[in-house]
Amino acid sequence: MANILTLIELTHAGAVAASAKGLLAAAATLGTPIAVVASENELSPEVAGQLGLAGAAVIYQGIGAQAGSVLTGPAVEALEAAVAAYDPAAVLVANSVDGREVAARLSVRVGGATLNDAVSVRLDGGRIVSGHSIFGGAYDVESAVEGGLPIITVRQGAIDGVANEGGGAVELVTAALRGTVPGAQVAAVNDAPATSSRPELRTAKTVVSGGRGLGSKENFVLVEQLADALGAAIGASRAAVDAGYVDQHAQVGQTGVSVSPQLYIALGISGAIQHRAGMQTAKTIVAINKDGDSPIFDVADFGIVGDVFKVVPQLIEALAARNN
Amino acid sequence: MKIVVLIKQVPDTAEERTLVSATGWLDREAADNLVDEINERALEVALRVKDADKSTEIVVLSMGPEEVTKGIRKALSMGADSGIHVLDGGLAGSDAARTAAVLAAALRSTNADVIVAGNESTDGRGGVVPAMIAEHLGLPLVGGLNAVELGNGKVSGERSGDSGSLQVTAQLPAVITMTERSAEARFPNFKGILTAKRKPVTTLSLSDLNVAATPAHSVILTHSEKPAREAGRKIEDDGTAATQLAGYLIENRLV
């Protein structure tokens, strides 16, 4: 079987990033998954074991002091060395802030090309083909690389599953990083705000989103109340983010996060085309908005023309009554 | 300081965007083509440097068909000093690898201290071209910045990652990319519009450039449009809408 490299990102605390499992699972459908990391210190047995359980047959660790202080360069170098050592059929990288910059630099270094933001990967008679969902899910496209190594950035949350359940036997290979890639220096790290108990927006089964119709930051609590009643993640339109009702991380749409949940509930969102581009692949869409002409109703499976401040509390009550 | 800002014309995100059925390439006729908003923010970063230090020179660089000139003129009317347009029929349908190699070739002779780009375009959303350019030019990439400071031979800024934000810094020359959280772009004023007409725009073809070979390229194998979503049930709230919705959610096992 062909070797498939996966770039495993580590958080600055040394934990395996959430994207790793999906990458290893995707790699296992194409060949033998090899996990590549760039790290300041050798991986702990716990982390190595975790990657083995997630399906890595080999862990290739590039070790160098700069991995803790230089942005993305060490990962490029580790992958470049692993490409030389394993002659892979593809390299899979998370479509994360770091991942795509690493993929881009690597493609120039090794004479490959990138396939960006893949939502699926498959083998088609020896060729590796990636699937993409573009313009907010309006088109499905399949792509491949000709004439060199395919370096595929995989949309986070799009591919899940476990490559090798119950496995864990893993070969560990260590190489020294020499610092051959120019990179920016990391001067300081600020942790993301403590993870909330709510599910992560990108991968949540249910999303409740609020828009400008909420009227104020204080009123946005209505979105939180319904989200908590449903165990849902919180989203928002760009208008709500721009108005300061909620943090930008919650923005769903063309320039925010794209979501494909089972259920998407839009509260006070008019549904500009840029917002619809980020949520119209949801399985079921519910919209509540005062303005019956809002374009959000064109894509809603269940639309209510009404006041969110009346309907939502009643809905929470009705759902609570059912749970009792 | 000399700053080159990369700009790209993209179909307006406020309109339906389509692919040309024969090639799977972007249909440039289907929607109005505009300078991508993220590029205008990148330009704003450069213009603020120039506001503080008039000796700053700002060049905008774009690759694309004839009508890209309009985008370059808009950037000039906002305050950029000159433009470079890479225009060559042989570039139609270029993938990211080819685009980056061509832009890097055009950048080599500019002697820029800073190359500013958006972190991703709204059409392709690949977010790979600036890093490819940085690799071609052997420069550090300071990518994904929400805020930036430029000066004294270095760049520093705040970058949001998946597990928090980082304070990052690099010596110039460097490539930097800005996110949508960076400074909002200014509008061209009347004087800007008038003076833009007199500012120089250089047109370069492939034969003017020494473009690095890109042996590999991405190809589109298949593409298909998904049927548009249809509207479902829509009710006016008469006091019972919430109960009806709860019933719908329960019936469809969505809660």
What features would you describe in this structure?
The complex is a heterodimer of chains A (324) and B (255). Chain A is α/β, with parallel strands linked by helices. Chain A has two domains: 3-176, HUPs (Rossmann fold, 3-Layer(aba) Sandwich); 206-323, TPP-binding domain (Rossmann fold). Chain A has helices at residues 20-28, 45-53, 73-86, 97-110, 221-230, 238-242, 273-279, 308-323; strands at 3-7, 32-39, 58-63, 90-94, 113-118, 120-124, 127-134, 139-146, 150-154, 171-176, 185-191, 206-210, 233-236, 263-267, 284-289, 302-305. In chain A, the strands form three sheets. In chain A, strands 5-9-4-1-2-3-10 form a seven-stranded parallel sheet, with helices on both faces. In chain A, strand 2 (32-39), helix 2 (45-53) and strand 3 (58-63) form a beta-alpha-beta unit. The mean pLDDT of chain A is 94. The longest helix of chain B is centred in the first third of the chain and has 16 residues, at 37-52. Chain B has a single domain, classed as Rossmann fold (3-Layer(aba) Sandwich), CATH 3.40.50. Chain B has 255 residues and is of the alpha/beta class. Chain B has helices at residues 37-52, 68-78, 96-108, 129-137, 190-196, 241-251, and strands at 2-6, 9-11, 33-35, 57-63, 82-86, 114-118, 141-151, 154-161, 164-171, 174-178, 201-204, 217-225, 233-236. The model of chain B has no long low-confidence stretch (mean pLDDT 95). Helices cover 26% and strands 30% of the residues of chain B. The interface between A and B is large, with 96 and 81 residues.
